Every structure is written in structure tokens, then in C-alpha cells.
Amino acid sequence: MDFSLTEEQTLLKDSVAKFIQNDYGYEDRQKLIKTESGYSADNWRTFAELGWLCVPFSEGDGGIGGGPIETMILMEEFGKGLVVEPFFETVVLSGSVLSRAASPEQKAELIGGIIEGTQVIATAFAEPESRFDLNHVATTATANGDSHSLSGKKSFVLQGGNASTLVVAARTSGDTRDEAGISLFIVDPSASGVSIESAKTLDGHSAADITLDNAPGTLLGAEGEGLSVLKAARDESILALASEAVGMMEKLYKDTVAYTKDRKQFGMPISVFQALQHRMVDMFTAHEMVKSLLLRAVLSYVNNDGEADKNIAALKYYLQVNGQAVAHEAVQIHGGMGMTDEMSTGMYLKRINVINTLFGNGDYHLKQFTALAS
Amino acid sequence: MDTKFTPEDLAFRDEVRAFLDENLTDEIRSAAVGGDIQPETIVKWQKILFDKGWIAPNWPEAAGGTGWSVTQNYIFENECAMAGAPAVVPFGLKMVGPVIYTFGSDEQKQRFLPDILQSNVWWCQGYSEPGAGSDLAALQTKAELDGDHYVVNGQKIWTTYAQHADWIFCLVRTDSSGKKQEGISFLLIDMKTPGIEVRKIDSIDNQHSLNEVFFDNVRVPVANRIGEENKGWTYAKYLLTHERTAIAGVAQSKKAIQKLRDIASKEISGGEPLINDAMFQAKLADIEIELMALEYTELRVISSVAAGGAPGPESSILKIKGTEIQQAIAELSVEACGHYAHMLNEENPIGNDYAWAVSAKYLYGRASTIYGGSNEVQKNIIAKMVLGL
Ligand SMILES: Cc1cc2nc3c(=O)[nH]c(=O)nc-3n(C[C@H](O)[C@H](O)[C@H](O)COP(=O)(O)OP(=O)(O)OC[C@H]3O[C@@H](n4cnc5c(N)ncnc54)[C@H](O)[C@@H]3O)c2cc1C
User: Fold this and answer.
1) Domains, chain B
2) What is the pTM (predicted TM-score) of this model?
3) B240 CB within 6 A, ligand 1
4) Which residues touch B43 (CB under 8 Å, ≥6 apart)?
5) Among residues A166, A238, A308, B14, which one has the fewest Cβ atoms lying within 10 Å of its Cβ?
6) Ligand 1 atom having least distance to the Cα of A275
7) Which value does ipTM take for this structure?
8) A235 and A361: one domain?
9) Spatial contact of A315 and A246, defined as CB atoms under 8 Å apart
10) A268 lines ligand 1 (CB under 6 A)
């Protein structure tokens, strides 16, 4: 039984933490999100130079052979800094799909491009009526020589407006909700037949609705077998986003404790009121408990122990309840200040809410858990 | 003990419904979303209510109220909310108005009350300061006598809709020698007076409701002071009680639940409408049951007050429970909207036409447990005043 980090992992954690501390101030971040792309190309280059963009990829694919533990370390620190660069979308979500499904040539171009910092890749899986069901795919793909023609609508594609390449789930056979018959495609966002409407989200990131009208796509992986790739990418995505949320929860309880020591009312710091002390203890406890489930899920996934699905469902449900509660408490205990953009508290709340929705909300995962546990 | 409607009550309900049918346009319905407000539209609505004689049901009849029974008030509130009418802006009609008709001079009543009833003047509330939130009596904004004027210096914060306001009612310090509650006065200040500056506060709901208001040698006629000098705390406390009961928002919560049901009928989950999902149904039922209990708690309070009694201990929980329920509905509404609950802008959103308003309301609604005396402060008051702890 050992929960300690290796020397390399500690170095990675320290290097990200140092960057966030010194070069990723909240005020700068708030300026960044108002720009058109919503993130900094300079930061993205720095991520590439520091080797962060290659972390989860195998050595054969040009990476360092890290896995969910290394991704967790990065994402936890990114969470504390409210990082808006498209690391999650490109490296974790799309990277996971590409690692599993891409041909050697596709890997060389796309994973190579990710690692160099020249590719931002968005994966389009959700649709207007899919909610959280990965198998709900109404978008169709018809063979057209050695390429395919894609038609349909993809919704809430994270970073869809910034992507240099899109990965799209479309149906090559079967009915809308069938598990079989879903295929993955590489789509050039500038191709004819692709229209992208991008909009900013409350957490400072962006998402796009994408309409495909006979858009050209190149098959990625085996035809009809895209769902298992998407499911694995979802698992790794949940582990990464939960890590980000755990970093935010830590920041939220610490910031709240610090604020109450500073803020005086009735002639004393409000930190002396037991009514608030107990609630900050609850925030701290919630952070530790979610972190424990995160470690449980990450290790179970890494060890492939047969319990990973259940552990991931448990984690996502528990995060929904506790992550949001901690953020609500942080706003409340900051009083009026918690309602302002001047404090980062509200931004953490909004990001946690987005994370809670992505890849299935609490109810969705509670059902998954119940089904797996019985 | 009976809560059945009489035939007269039912006739009144039909009258209210007919009035709303005729006057409540879609434009008016959309006048207030979350922290955002369209001042012209809401004023238009308030003037329609005034013309009908229904603008101030909570005022005494002699001052311009309706003289309705408890049941009629209840019917009116419910019908307005269920029809989607925006709530009236509280600062004039529910806050300073009652202070003026209770503690103001005859001259002040004549000067200010008609404009409040007719919505000719927009008021804002200048209580809180950077150093005086929960500890309101610690306020420092100073008013010094200079002939027949006070000279006001200091700063207010969190002043809702100060950017629209013609007048502000302020608590100011006129004496610092004794107990802090005993040196406070209640002033009415024209926002056009030289020396007043309003600055916007950026808030998490991305709407503009919050402001800071700065006073730099602002001259205010002594005639604009309510009641006696240094007795402002008494008037302020009276007003806070008014604010706290108005905050339960039962009828508005019923409407919000209805909207949530509509949304859940449109959202698809697992291939069917979300409203059919057993887990969602259980969460919704849980909130509805809370609201049913709160509704009767509020009716108990209102009817005991109408019968001439003082509000009992049950009145103290209205604000706490009311705001908790509002927040629970808002949270579940955000959850129901799925991905599109997270869009930043109302203009050119991707997704659907209802999710943005849901999230704006949710984010602004985080403040309902902070303003009007935070829920923690309410609990302190209940512990002390009701439970004797
Ligand atoms: C959206 C919004 C609109 C507002 N509009 C107006 C307005 O129009 N005019 C106006 O004058 N004011 C307005 N306010 C101000 C509001 O009344 C104050 O925010 C409120 O009184 C709390 O004060 P504070 O923000 O300074 O928080 P603080 O008093 O600093 O409180 C911080 C936290 O400590 C808790 N706390 C404080 N004391 C205790 C205690 N003794 N025991 C336990 N917990 C305690 C509080 O509950 C809170 O959670 C508004 C506020 C908001 C958020």
C-alpha cells in the first residue's frame, strides 16, 4: 500500500505548481478568457516546451508513457489555476481517442502535432438529444469512395471553435441508439459542409455546435466499433476532470479559510464564529473524501482490476454532490464578495458545474453505479 | 380553522386572472431575469398596476393600499407569479415607502409617497458598506450638520440598481460617541446631488445589478431626514423586517417549479423526456414538499398578523426556508438543462432558448442567502430571540 508519488511525478507536480503560482495569475486569466480564442498561444507553446503535452502518450507514439496518474497530477494543478488552455480537450479526450484508434500515419500527424503544440483537437460526441448517452448518435456517415460523407448535428463540442482538427462520432449502420455501428472520423473543420457556431461558456472556456452537411471525413479506427473507444476516452476524461475539480476544491476551502481570517465583522475575524468553522471543516472533509475516491478510481483504472467502471461512476456522482456543495459554501462564506468577479470563488463554482455536467451528471452515474453494484 | 376559498374569493381570482390576461404582455414577462432588469419595461408594468389600484397591496388602505384580506393578497400573489408577472422592484414600494408612511413627516409623505406609488422615482438602498455587512451597525458613512444641510462623506457597497436610481435611502453616522446603533440617522438623498459617484461591480452572473456608491461632500437638506436624528437604527430594523418576510417568495417558487417541469418535458434523457426519470421525479418531489410546508407556514404568519397579532416564531424561518427552496429549484433547473446550462451570453447562444435564463437565475440566486440579512445571521437571531439561547 503506497500513495506516494515517484520522483518523476513529484518533479512534474512541482513544475506545474510553480508555473501556476508564478505565471498564471487569476487577473491575467480573466483577461485571457475575453480574447477571441479564450486562451494564450504563448502558454500553449510553453506547455509543449515543458513536455506537458506529451505526458499521457506512449513512448512509441512520441510521449513519455505516462498514464492517468500523471494526468491527474497535471490536472489537479491546472484546476487550482483555472487553466483555460485546451489541454483537457486536446491531450486527454482527443489524445485518448487517437491513441486507441488512429493508424500509424494518423498518429504521426495528429499525436505528433499535439506534442509539438501545433494541433488543437476537439472531439464531437454529444448531440442535441443524446444528453449523456454515448451510444445516442443520429449523425450519419456514408461511404463515398475511400472517404465518408457526414451529416448531422453535434452539440456542445468543447473547444470546437478553436480546433485545427475535429474527431467526430457518426453512425455507419444501425439505429440512433444502437451500441454497434458507431464510427469515428477525422474531419477538417475548414472543409465544405462543416459549419461551426462557437460560444463562450460560463467557466471561461468555449463550446461549439457543429452542423455537418455532407462533410468529408476520414475513418479513424475500425468501422462500427467507435463506441468502445469513446467509452475508454470518457473514463479517462472523467478521471482527468475529477482531478481538476479536486484541485479546485482544495483551493476553495483554503481560500475560504484565509478570507475568514482576514474579514472582520462585529469587531472580530469572522473565522472565530463556530457556525462558519464547522462548515469550513465540512468543506475540507469533502475535499479529502473526493480525493480519496479519485485515487481509488485512478488506481483501479490503472491496475485494470475489474472495478474501474464502478469506481468511476462512484467518483463522478460523489463529485457532483460534494464539489458543488463546497463551491456553494465558499461563495456563501465570502458574503457579497463571493458574488463578485473580483474573487475567483464564483469562477471555481462555474467550472465545477461544467465538470459535473460533462460525461454524465450525478444522477446518470448514480444509475450506472446501481446497475454495476447489483 | 379553514382555508377554503369563499365564492367572493373565487370571483376575485377571476377578476385578477382577467386583468392579467389583458395586461401582461410577453415583453413585460421578460422584464426581469436573474440579476438583470429592464427598467422601462418594469416601470411600465408597475404603472399598469398603479392605474388598476393594485400596486401596493401591502400598504395601509389610507396610504394607497388595497385593503385586501389575507386570502385576497394570497390569491393576487399567486396569480401574478403563475402568469409570469415580474416582481415589483422592492426598494420604493416594499422598503422606503413603508418607512415613510410609518415614520415620515406629513410633508415627506406628500412629497415622496405619490411618486413611489406611481413608479415615477426609482429608489435604491444604501445600507451596506465595505466594513459593515452582517454587522450593519458598524457603518461609517458620515453626515455632519452644516446649517440646514448634512454633509455626507463615505461609501456604500452592493447597492442594487444604483445605476438606475433617482434617489437613495441611506443609513449614515451622525454620532460616534456612544453605542454604535445609537448614532445612526436615516437620510433620503437625491442621486443627482453633486459629489455622488456610482461604480459598477462585476458579478458572477455577468449582469449589472451591483454597484458601489461614493459620497464626497454631498449636501443633503436636513428636511430629508426621516424621524429623529440618531434614531435611524429603529427605522432600519423596521424596514429589515419587511424585507425579510417579502423574501420567502412562495408564489415565485411555485412558478419556478412549473417552469422546471416544462423544461424537464423538453429535455431528453436516456431517449425519453427527463420528466419521466424516477430520480429526477424524486428530487422534484422533495422540493415541492418543502414548498408546501413553507406555503402554510407563511399563511399562518400572515393570518396571525392580519388578525392583529404579532408575527410568531414561525415568521423567522420564512427567509431561511424560502431562499433554500429557491436555490434548490434553481440547482435542479440547471441540472435539467444539461450542457446548455453553461453558456455565457444570452445573445447568439448555441443550444436552446430557455437554458440561459435558468443559469442567470441560478447564479444570481446564490445571493439570496447572503442579502437581506444572511441566513447565518438569521439563525443567530432565531437562536437568541426565539430559542432564548
Ligand atoms: C446580490 C446582492 C444584492 C445586495 N443589494 C443590496 C442593496 O441594494 N443595498 C444594501 O445596502 N446592501 C445590499 N446587499 C448587501 C448585503 O446585505 C450584504 O452582502 C450582507 O449583509 C452580508 O454582508 P457582507 O457581504 O459584508 O458579508 P459578511 O458580513 O462579511 O459575511 C460573510 C459571511 O460570514 C457570515 N457571518 C457574518 N457574521 C456572522 C456571525 N455572527 N455568525 C455566523 N456567520 C456570520 C455571513 O453569513 C457570510 O456568510 C446586497 C448583497 C448582494 C450579494
Assistant:
1) 7-88 (no CATH), 123-230 (2.40.110.10), 248-386 (1.20.140.10)
2) 0.97
3) no
4) B119, B122
5) B14
6) 43
7) 0.96
8) yes
9) no
10) no
Kindly state whether residue A2 falls inside one of the protein's structural domains. no
Chain B CB contacts of A335 below 8 Å: 133-134, 370, 374
Chain A nearest C-alpha distance from B333 (Å): 13
Q: What is the pLDDT of residues A344-355, one digit of tens each?
A: 999 999 999 999
Ligand 1 atom closest to Cα of residue B156? 11
Q: Give residue A66's region: left, alpha or beta (phi > 0; psi -120 to 50).
A: beta
Give the cell for residue B239: 424596514
Distance from CA of A230 to the nearest CA of B (A): 17
pLDDT in tens, chain A (374 residues): 889 999 999 999 999 999 999 999 999 999 999 999 999 999 999 999 999 999 999 999 999 999 999 999 999 999 999 999 999 999 999 999 999 999 999 999 999 999 999 999 999 999 999 999 999 999 999 998 889 999 999 999 999 999 999 999 999 999 999 999 999 999 999 999 999 999 999 999 999 999 999 999 999 999 999 999 999 999 999 999 999 999 999 999 999 999 999 999 999 999 999 999 999 999 999 999 999 999 999 999 999 999 999 999 999 999 999 999 999 999 999 999 999 999 999 999 999 999 999 999 999 999 999 999 87
Range of the domain at A131: 122-225
In short, whether B381's Cβ falls inside 6 Å of ligand 1 is no
Is A131–B379 a contact, with Cβ atoms under 8 angstroms apart? no
Residues of B with CB below 8 A from A157's CB? none
**How many residues are listed for chain A in this entry?**
374
- Tell me whether residues A350 and B363 touch, CB distance under 8 A: yes
Residue A343 Cβ inside 6 Å of ligand 1? The answer reads no
In chain A, residues with a C-beta closer than 8 Å to the C-beta of B268 are 129, 131
- For B382, residues 6+ apart whose C-beta sits below 8 A from its C-beta are B313, B316, B317
- The Cα–Cα gap between B353 and B349 comes to 8
Is A299 domain-assigned?
yes
Identify which of B95, B99, B158 to mutate to test ligand 1's pocket (most ligand atoms within 8 A of the CB): B158
Q: Is A132 in the pocket of ligand 1 (CB under 6 A)?
A: no
Residue B272: active-site member: no
Distance CA A145, CA A263 (A): 68
Total structural domains within chain A: 3
Q: What residue of B is the nearest CA neighbor of A158?
A: B339
Going by their DSSP bridges, the two strands A264-265 and A165-171 should be labelled as unpaired
CB contact under 8 A, B204 and A361: no
Kindly report the CATH number assigned to the domain that includes residue A77. Answer: 1.10.540.10
- How far away, in angstroms, is A134 Cα from ligand 1 center? 44
Residues A237 and A96: beta-carbon distance below 8 Å:
yes
Residue among B328, B318, B316 nearest B365 (CA): B328
Residue pair A82/A249 in contact (Cβ under 8 Å)? The answer is no
